[in-house]
Amino acid sequence: xxxxxxxxxxxxxxxxxxxxxxxxxxxxxxxxxxxxxxxxxxxxxxxxxxxxxxxxxxxxxxxxxxxxxxxxxxxxxxxxxxxxxxxxxxxxxxxxxxxxxxxxxxxxxxxxxxxxxxxxxxxxxxxxxxxxxxxxxxxxxxxxxxxxxxxxxxxxxxxxxxxxxxxxxxxxxxxxxxxxxxxxxxxxxxxxxxxxxxxxxxxxxxxxxxxxxxxxxxxxxxxxxxxxxxxxxxxxxxxxxxxxxxxxxxxxxxxxxxxxxxxxxxxxxxxxxxxxxxxxxxxxxxxxxxxxxxxxxxxxxxxxxxxxxxxxxxxxxxxxxxxxxxxxxxxxxxxxxxxxxxxxxxxxxxxxxxxxxxxxxxxxxxxxxxxxxxxxxxxxxxxxxxxxxxxxxxxxxxxxxxxxxxxxxxxxxxxxxxxxxxxxxxxxxxxxxxxxxxxxxxxxxxxxxxxxxxxxxxxxxxxxxxxxxxxxxxxxxxxxxxxxxxxxxxxxxxxxxxxxxxxxxxxxxxxxxxxxxxxxxxxxxxxxxxxxxxxxxxx
Length: 539
Fold this sequence. Notes:
The protein is mainly alpha-helical.
């Protein structure tokens, strides 16, 4: 078979590296893209004889597919319209073949004239149809339909009527399958969800919106939801502050009721879970089926876990944890308590031999009471780090060829990326050597850790405040600003007027009153603040 490629294509394909993977190596994404590009280039230059052979093979496969599809029964799972990927179980299989929808007069007209229009638009039979040409065919058919002669229109309409009658006959004979009903979560009359779970509390804006919508619906029942929402939002912005405070108080009461109801509901759920016998808390049938269908997550020898495998492991463990038996749950709690005790003992004894920064202030240090015995061991090197140590110098020479200049940040990033690429394609022999070296490093680290005795530090005491408002060490407090002085006076008055007022509502009202305060009053608070600042400087 003579399949000659263009000279530039031969040159391009000859310059590409071999895409055949080496033994025990994997295809990368770049390799797959290169394969796809190469196949697309060959398809564009395929010979006519081989093209005919491919078409014959495609037709044969299409026949096999149609045979298998006809034998494929509806007793298997079928995707439903409820959610992406949701499935429904078929209870009763269908009887007969599902009829296809009847052809309309316009579709019958298009079937009659499509071939002629396609020959007019696409004159070269050896080339393929383009998208623009297919669009031109559709447009041309629509133009012909608008100017169709009455006789042909009557013929198409008569054919459409006959098609509709045939479709109706097939539809009367066909019995569709019966699916398992899809149950949605229902709400009870009390407004609670199934399981008596309390609803979320409404905000102040939602309470106002409900009242406002009732009035707008009475005034104009034909008002759309969008227009109503815009009007409600506008009225809320123009609502007086006192009215907003009332809605905020009602919302806070609902939130408090919701907190109490949620605590009661959670306690009820825990009580029901504890009362359920351990033998009855088995996996649901669909969960068992899902977990049984999953492939084994144990890695093969010399293979690595992928991110998808780790996600599958996490999902499976989460499903098992939700359905854990009460006896096993108690065992896990006991083991967790034991590990917590061991951790506290190790934490109390651990510490470096030098001064260490504590959490008390930036740069604060703790005093060592008893010095460390021996040198603190360094953390063991992993197989990947050992591989990087072996190949870093060579990669650095490849990336940075000039030894007289300094390394740039981009070059260091390129070195790290290159080492990661080499690690993904590492040969099995070198991988085994790195793993062996990592095991030896870990053993050496464990020996040094057993000998090392960490130092004992002086306990850290947090700074406390005295009754006089000064910190320990008699350090003076920061002076108050003019706004803080005004806010203290204003809050006292608001608390006397309404003790149940929330902190957020009080702050909003204080801020608004400060903006509306006369300039002379602000000057008085500013003078008082300046006096406090002067006292603070002296102190």
